[in-house]
Amino acid sequence: MSCSLNNLSIRVGVSMRSGTLQYLHISEYGQVCARFPEKAREIRTGALNTVQAGQVVFIESTAEGKEGHFFDLCEAAQAKQRMGTPLTPLDFKFAFFPWWKAPEYVLDPTGVVIGEDHRKYFDTLQATAGIVLTDAQRAWYVKKAQTQLDDMKREYPSTPEEAFEASVEGSYYGPLLAAAELQGRIGDFPADLELPVHTAWDLGIGDATSIWFFQVAAGKPNVIGYLENSGEGMPYYAAELRKMARERGWTYGRIYLPHDGKHREWGSGRSRIEQIHAEKISSKFPILQPLGDVEEGINAARSTIPLATFDQAACAEGLKALKAYCKEWDEERGCWKDRPRHDLHSGCWR
User: Fold this and answer.
1) 309, β-bridge pairs
2) Strands (E), 130-229
3) Structural domains in the chain?
4) Host H or E run for residue 244
5) Distance between CA atoms of 330 and 62, rounded to whole angstroms?
6) Which SS3 state, helix, strand or coil, does residue 307 take?
7) Does pTM surpass 0.70?
8) pLDDT > 90: percent of the chain
9) Angle CA(127)–CA(130)–CA(134) in degrees, nearest 5?
């Protein structure tokens, strides 16, 4: 669609692969990158190439996790901002507009109850980001969160980091991890050197192999590490686990493998469970998990996450993968499918 006035024209469309534009406004690019990667590619290679150096491009969006072209653009712009790097005509300048800078986001605090979870959240904002909120702002945030639920940080982020950390639409575990953050269950939770460290493996062939490290205290898991790589054999992971144990003072306990751990590999003629046991990572024989469908694994993780604590620094990459593990989008029907999207996060926890 296009219209013109006084020799000026405005075009609106889903693709701009032609012409020479002076101003380009791309809306909700983060969502396009997350749901429609091919459309995002068309915008990147088509629309952005219609604007010459020295002209103006505005890209605005709600953040959709820590991946995709929108995230990459924001990361690069923030890095230049932090380092004070002079911008060229082809560089983007980062701008963030937090909810607490909007003067209208206030509410009479009379009768508004600030729960302990939100009280800790506001205290953390002040301690880590220097954000001091008035009672009226706190009251507004708490009441708004009652309608926004798990999307509060996504729709009304307090910091750029929070915007990209918030759960992705269609995420299986994002809301559970958002609750864990609010409740203080993601933070500084180091290993207890008196307890054994158990490992849960997802063995990838075409995909990455991921390993979670956890301990159990008072019947609840404390997740203390995450390791992921691809294109490596069992000797690599065994060496990495020994190195981690040596550097961190860990003693390994149970090794939990998926059902395909019993499959024999062409190169060695031995099953994966036999290879792991031969590496003597732990004195205990590895345990094979029974075969179950993907939905059972997702439900098991959903039951476990609300009980768990996570050491934030050691599990950063794993937490990022968990938040990004989401349903597949049905473009024809405009809704989420009842199955996960197969991507690099597919084996992070199930």
Assistant:
1) 222
2) 186-187, 197-202, 209-217, 220-229
3) 2-83 (no CATH), 99-166 (no CATH), 187-340 (3.30.420.280)
4) helix 234-248
5) 20
6) helix
7) no
8) 36
9) 100
